[in-house]
Amino acid sequence: MRSRTAQILLVALGAVALAAFLPLWLNAYILGLLTMAYYSGVFAMAWDLLFGFAGEVNFGPTFLIGTGAYTAGILDNLYQPPIWLCVAAGTLAAVVGGVVLALPALRVRGPYFGLTTLVAVLMLENFIIVDAHLTGGENGLTVPDVISISDSTNYEIALWFMAVSGAILFSLARSPVGLILQASGQDAVQAGALGFNVTKHKLTAFIISAFFSGLAGALLVFYIGSVSASSLVDITVGVQVIIAAVLGGRRTILGGALGAIFLIAMSELLRPLGDLSNFVVFAMALVVVLLFPGGFFGLLTRSKESG
Amino acid sequence: MATSARLEVSGLTKRFGGLVAVKDMAFDVQAGKILGLIGPNGSGKSTVMKLIMGIERPNAGSVRINGTEVAGWPSHKIARMGAGIVFQHSRPLHRQTVLENIKLALLPDKLTRLFADPKIDEHARAIAARVGLSAALDRRPAALPFADLRKIEIAKAIARDPQVLLIDEPFAGLTATETAAFSDLICKLRDDGRAVLLVDHNVKSVARLVDRVLAMYVGERIAEGTADEVMRNETVRRVYLGGSIETAARPESSFRDRATPFLEIDKLSVHYGKAQALDNVSIHVHAGEFVSVVGLNGAGKTTLFNAISGFLPYAGDIRRDGASLRGMTAATIARHGIVQCPEGRELFTDMTVRENLDLGGQHLPPVESADQIGWLFDLFPILRERQKQAAGTLSGGEQQMLTIARALMMKPKLLILDEPTLGLAPVILEQLSKALERLRQTTAITVLLGEQNVTFALPHADRVYVLEHARIVWEGEPASFAAGAGTGYL
User: Fold this and answer.
1) Do A186 and B74 touch (CB under 8 A)?
2) Residue B405's domain is classified under what CATH number?
3) Chain B interface test: which of A4, A5, A174, A179 (most B C-beta within 10 Å)
4) Number of domains chain B is built from
5) How far apart are CA B236 and CA B138, in angstroms?
6) Where in the sequence is the domain holding B322, given as residue range(s)?
7) Residues B312, B215 within the same domain
8) Of B199, B218, B241, at which residue does a domain stop?
């Protein structure tokens, strides 16, 4: 098992190393798409830690992402501190928001947890629209700073950010802590009887998920140079994150990155279909989820696992 | 003397809404001793175990582990005080190997432990050797036989070296050889100086192991003593075997369909994964007959009924009027007149009594449906009063009557009743019993009743089958039940 973990990490590292050279061949447009995909990948991986391991369906990944992004963006607009400070503040806000949301939400069971997280998204979205003098309302918020104007620099930052986040989340999931988390998600009663404080472990998972979601959201603001509710907070954005994670493979962490890249690549390839393209992408996602519940990553690793 | 009592329980009480599930329970278990906690299904014994482990919070009472009061604590803290539980159902982590499943139980409850202590590996292997899993260490749970899955549960429960060990139905689903091996293992755990609480349905299954037995019924202690004493106890005998029961069986020869009985079940076998739930069961029911299948919880009654209703794949054959039911969907079987009242009742709890009944009569023309409801209100007068009430607000007994009434709305040829008495108070049982008697005398309906409550199952029955560990072990007239099968039932 340990060697298998190392094997997967090695393959993933190889893939990232190859991807690092892509700016040599690809044009700015495609690099931009991939940059977006890499940030989405982090969203999906952070979500999988909650769903795949803690067993909690968080319908509000965009609550965490949006809190991080808007906090960073608003701070930059108001005081123009260094970018890293804005990003740190955004991440912190997402973690705090995550705790505030998770503490009551983890008390309720099953679908109610999901519903609570869903309502949190609606509340955040509403706040953004109403408090327009701070958030820019429906027009979105434009920030005065960006990390870089070079496409390849932005690309490399996103790539390595995804790689490091993925490595951390993956190692965590495969560590003893991840094992306890899995047990808590699958059978909370039994995990409690084995001496594990289930709430503590699930809350920690939520905090870690919030950390990476908020960090990615805040970084994304300074890549795009703006943030809007429709691009980062809306329910449909959250659903895309969930689809990416499930498509890539539940309980695999790294699958989330694959899923996110696949979703963005497909909607680009199918662009000639016009409005139909999203429909086709979602239909494909549906087929994968129905026929291969293990997702892409499950397909890739299944042969080894049974052998 | 309090020093050697590893587990002390006193005044333990648990209410679920208006239902008192456990009332003023008191017992203690010394180091190196085994206490058997027995009682029929619904008697509250599992709740006692959950209260001790902190899975449910008691309303009142005390639970002491090694002298420390733990009542009301969350279960992870109770586990750390030295209590361990072996659940009846195995739910290991399926992606992990056996070794990793055991290691899980050895991990400290810390968020900072990102790398496992190498000692844990050694420790886990030692525990696996102890329970006899050494050969299966690197396999995944899905590839293991049922008995090994149970061993994983024991391994996990003893990983933290608990001084108090609770075991729920230790031998459910095991073969005779496996049961013997498990008994040995439990004895060894006791010999380490642990206090062991075995929870099971009857004395017989745990008699060989226990030092003392405590029998429960409807939340209360009814007897305590050695296995022999409890088996001889009058109250226990009455609960399990019924008191002096008046039976009114009609002889089998009085039914017209002797050559081809209405329902024939031929060598039926059912497996749940690796556990055998039914083994070569053959029974038959004549048209108009009232047949009781008596058996303790887990004997296979529900499985038998679910197979008849077409909910389960099975080996063997089920014939109605000589024609096989194989391949028919559950809906078709029900529409053709074999209707089951499931153990869980499955009422639409937010709908009113009347709506539940109307739903059952969907396929009937409105006039006929209204007639049928009128007849049912005569059969169960309380339902007429409760017509506009939501089904969920009815008492347990009223819900059971509604379940039966709803099934009767479908005008079944064969009515299957799965444990209608589950969790009901004695007064209600009597009302239900009268309704069944009227049903039997005034209609031509055929009834197949599954029960562990003999007092309820025998009076109306024309014939009785006893189901034990997936097999039919006795068949005969209700009058001869106590003499013929009673001893095996205790």
Assistant:
1) no
2) 3.40.50.300
3) A179
4) 2
5) 46
6) 252-489
7) no
8) B241
Q: Searching chain B, which residue's CA lies closest to the CA of residue A200?
A: B111
By Cβ distance, the residue of B85, B107, B110 closest to A179 is: B107
The Cα B274–Cα A125 span in angstroms is 51
Question: Looking at the domain assignment, is residue B471 inside a domain?
Answer: yes
Pairing of strands B220-225, B212-217: antiparallel
**pLDDT tens digits for range B459-470:** 888 999 998 888
Among all chains, which residue has been given the structure tokens 């060598």? Answer: B267
Q: Which residues of B33-71 are buried (b: 16+ CB within 10 A; e: fewer)?
A: bbbbbbbbbbbbbbbbbbbbbbbbebeebebbbbeeebb
Residue type, A263: L
Average pLDDT for chain A: 90
Of the listed ranges A218-227, B95-104, B234-243, the least confidently predicted one is B234-243
Condensed to tens digits (0 to 9), the pLDDT of residues A17-49 reads: 999 999 999 999 999 999 999 999 999 999 999
Q: Looking at this predicted complex, what is its ipTM?
A: 0.83
The answer to whether B141 faces chain A, any CB pair under 8 Å, is: no
Residue A131 exposure: Cα atoms within 13 Å on the Cβ side:
11
Tell me, what's the pLDDT at B237?
A: 82
Is residue A61 within 8 Å of residue A206, measured between CB atoms?
no
Residue B246 lies in a domain: no
**Shortest CA distance from B91: residue in chain A:** A187
Task: Provide the pLDDT for residue B488.
Answer: 62
Question: A225 — contact with chain B (CB < 8 Å)?
Answer: no
pLDDT surpasses 50 at B2: no
Of A190, A193, A195, the CB nearest to B109: A195
Using CB atoms, pick whichever of A189, A192, A194 lies closest to residue B156.
Answer: A194
Q: A194, B79: Cβ pair inside 8 Å? A: yes
Contact B212, B51 (CB under 8 A): no
CB-CB neighbors (< 8 A) of A179 in chain B: 93, 96, 100, 103-104, 107
Q: Which residue has the higher pLDDT, B130 or A303?
A: B130
List CB contacts of B412: < 8 A, sequence separation 6 or more.
Answer: B337, B338, B339, B445
Mutate one of B76, B95, B98, B152 to test the A interface: name it (highest A CB count within 10 A): B76
Using the beta-carbon criterion (under 8 Å), do B96 and A180 form an inter-chain contact? no
SS3 of B468, please? strand
Q: B137 with B194, same domain?
A: yes
The pTM score is 0.77
Point out the residue among A172, A183, A193 whose CB comes nearest to the CB of B55.
A193
Please check whether residues B99 and B185 belong to one and the same domain: yes
Residues 192-211 of A with CB under 8 A from B: 192-198, 200-201, 204
* Cα–Cα distance for residue pair B93/B100, rounded to 1 Å: 9
pLDDT at A306 over 50: no
- B74 part of contact set with chain A, CB < 8 Å: yes
Model confidence pLDDT, tens digit, residues B174-196: 777 888 889 999 999 999 999 99
Which positions in chain B touch A8 (Cβ < 8 Å)? none
The answer to whether residue B247 sits within a structural domain is no
Instruction: Quick: pLDDT tens for B448-460.
Output: 999 888 878 888 8
Distance from the Cα of A117 to chain B's closest Cα (Å) equals 24
> Could you report the per-residue pLDDT of A216-254, keeping only the tens digit for each?
999 999 999 999 999 999 998 999 999 999 999 988 999
Contacts of A176 in chain B (CB under 8 A): 103, 107, 113-116
Q: Which residues lie below 8 Å from residue B253, measured CB to CB, with a gap of 6+? A: none
Residues B189 and B336 in one domain: no
Residue A201's closest chain B neighbor by CA?
A: B111
CA distance linking residue B338 with residue B262, whole number of Å: 11
User: B325, B275, B288: which is closest to B305 by C-alpha?
Assistant: B325
Closest-CA residue in chain A for B88? A190
